[in-house]
Amino acid sequence: MKRHSVRTYKSSDMLPREDQLAWKIAEVASDNVPLDNDVVEMIGNRMIDNASVAVASLARRPIKSARAQAMSHERGVGATIFGLASNRRFSPEWAAWANGVAVRELDYHDTFLAADYSHPGDNIPPILAVAQHCGLSGEDLIRGIATGYEIQINLVKGICLHEHKIDHIAHLGPSAAAGIGTALNLPTEVIYQAVQQALHVTTTTRQSRKGEISSWKAYAPAFAGKMAVEAVDRTLRGEGAPSPAWEGEDGFIAWLLGGPTAEYSVPLPEAGEAKRAIMDSYTKEYSAEYQSQALIDLARKMGGTIAGQGRKLKDVQSIVIHTSHHTHYVIGTGANDPQKMDPNASRETLDHSIMYIFAVALEDGGWHHERSYAPERAQRPETVALWRKVSTLEDPEWTRRYHSRDPEEKAFGGRVVITFEDGRIMADELAVADAHPLGARPFARPQYVEKFRTLAEDIVSREEQDRFLETVERLPVLRPRELSGLNIAVDPSKLGSPAKPGIFDRALTKEQGE
Hints:
Blueprint: E1 2-7, H1 21-29, H2 37-55, H3 61-71, E2 74-75, E3 89-90, H4 92-104, E4 112-113, E5 117-118, H5 124-133, H6 138-158, H7 169-183, H8 188-201, H9 216-236, H10 252-256, E6 263-268, H11 293-308, E7 316-323, H12 325-331, H13 347-350, H14 354-364, H15 375-378, H16 381-387, E8 390-394, H17 396-403, E9 414-420, E10 425-430, H18 445-456, H19 462-473, H20 510-513
Parallel strand pairs: 7-8
Antiparallel strand pairs: 1-6, 2-3, 4-5, 7-9, 9-10
Helix pairs in contact: 1-7, 1-8, 2-4, 2-18, 3-4, 4-5, 4-9, 5-6, 5-7, 5-9, 6-7, 7-8, 7-9, 8-9, 11-14, 14-16
């Protein structure tokens, strides 16, 4: 890997293209290097993971709305949409939109955390949609996905967005555009323009993950994927982009990040170097913000210990979670969001409340992607009482470990101190989730398949499950017409009631036209 210094330049400096971050990203994307076997295996794992969480959300309102929008753009050729028959094809940017929302809704797929945070599996829906639409092969697809992961993860390693209240999809737009460029085997120049366009149109604020969090939390990454598809389409037609997008005098760094004096260091593979960043990422065992994964495991353990000692949770006086800056300020009491303590809060808000999550996991000894968020669960009086005894504190050591570049030291958990009314104290800590590559039960293909089977149960027929998994097994050798097999069709009754009508469902009648 080579680290690239990225900073602002005056327009009069005439920064050469080859020195711009977008060009360096495009060079990585257009470098057709072989993929390592473990990378190919992991790409298959993440396609299973995405499908798992997508099918589990098919009947939820945000997914129904996004799917209804996309279904207004049906065409003879195109891409598939999760839940619908695979012979139905839709405009690729809209298929990316619908599938992206389905994948993201439950906050239950893969993650990478460093200087910023991300869900790199969000790259898969737009790259897959373009591959299906353009008749690409399985090999083309996995090359594109490897690039998407490579670019997003390395941007996350080098550039912190949340410090400046910019949402993390500003890294996803460029990475998805680069991945599409790789899959289509586009020239460096075209990818360079697409990456910059994608950055320009996907820079949004973090309010989507602050305060009263709405369904836009799931929509935002899908929006970035849709914008990436459109950016590549425009640049293929010869259209350019604001350049240099990152380094410009009125660009991204100068006005939205650290300012004209800021300097960032972004690692990227050198020419001929394998794309392996996907191996640095990790998935979720539980449907909750990643920083809560280890703490859910810790709650399960501590809850069992409390019960084994014959103690009662009603006798708890306080629970203090000593953790990283990010966990404290994003999903902890450091966020100063009263909504995070509100029993009537939305699912999206509860997902970003470690106080709620720890209390429920402590009571239930685990976590469920639906039951744990149910209104009746959140409003249970004893849960509310326990929940309001939980607080977080930033611990400099956990913050240091959160940002460590040493994978053996990097940590996303914390230390929990439970004080009982009689003054007794119970304390324990956990650095990484059990499902993490360095955890007690690391996820491999069998665990991804189990997650898929569990979430697809009673939604996807066993025959369809088997067919999908068999298709993923052959991913590197899939022929263009076989890429539709990466879709999952379900009985229409599993898609829930129809979505509310919107603009796309309205048409000018003959009488109105007259």
